[in-house]
């Protein structure tokens, strides 16, 4: 796989913005509607199942999307599915910035924030090392480690948009989505109970849960299931991890730009201005705006809901487009890096709780 990737034109797919081949059909509202309609129906089903039975909507949407994988053979759906998995994904990433402010990050304090940054860095490195252990390439380990370290499915989607589908196939990307969402759901169930058995106080439990559970909703829900104070701490810690999504994306983008384009000739080099995709800039600007101005509660609520829906749409579209046969052919060892990074995240968070 690594040898094959070196032969690919690395810069052209850096953000999935450029096409290596001519599009098969012009994107108009009429061509987008069939695919978007299918994604919307699946999203409504996922939200209904989540509301009535409790599992994360992201997980339900992912599983239903995989079950409908056969629909991707209908070319009439292609434009809408591509739009949902690319454009709507990027808009959703921008809107995540409405959930956090720089003030929330500073309220965490220097020592816990430094510990949190170290945990995230170690988890991402662990993902890359674990990928070698399970005979996967480094990019897959980076995606698995980044999704675990930052914010689960949202981070996986954002990182994949940076890494590119030519480096990580749709089916392997779906493995990361499925693994992180299932691990996050399990963590929300067991981590608060473990914190109780260890007799952690509210602050310690909140830090442990917020620093180790992948998905934002599960981390916050797990914290409040322990206590209201633990929920508040878990919220700040988890949102601090989300805030680090933007700088991590920039670092990954610049690293891929530096090392990925070295063999493509001088004409393929991309400057810093071209190296920063618009959705990263939008994310940072929205965080800054939310920090500088008290946005109306209704706008914040609407923005958060829109971000969740758009990311759900992107997950569903990615699942429908996945090569399910290829996904199954990878075997259970493909989930190894996710399992290792999940365990490492919990162990390091627990150690940090004892030291803080």
UniProtKB/TrEMBL annotation:
Major localization listed first in the record, in broad terms: membrane
Membrane topology annotation: Multi-pass membrane protein
Full protein name: Conserved hypothetical integral membrane protein
Entry annotated with the keyword Transport: no
Keywords attached to this entry: Cell membrane, Membrane, Transmembrane, Transmembrane helix
Transmembrane segments: 29-47, 53-71, 108-130, 142-163, 175-198, 239-256, 276-297, 309-328, 334-353
Classification via InterPro entries: UPF0324_pro
Position of the signal peptide: none
Family, per entry: Belongs to the UPF0324 family.
Tree of life domain: Bacteria
Source organism of the structure: Parasphingorhabdus marina DSM 22363
Cell compartments where the protein resides: Cell membrane
GO cellular component: plasma membrane
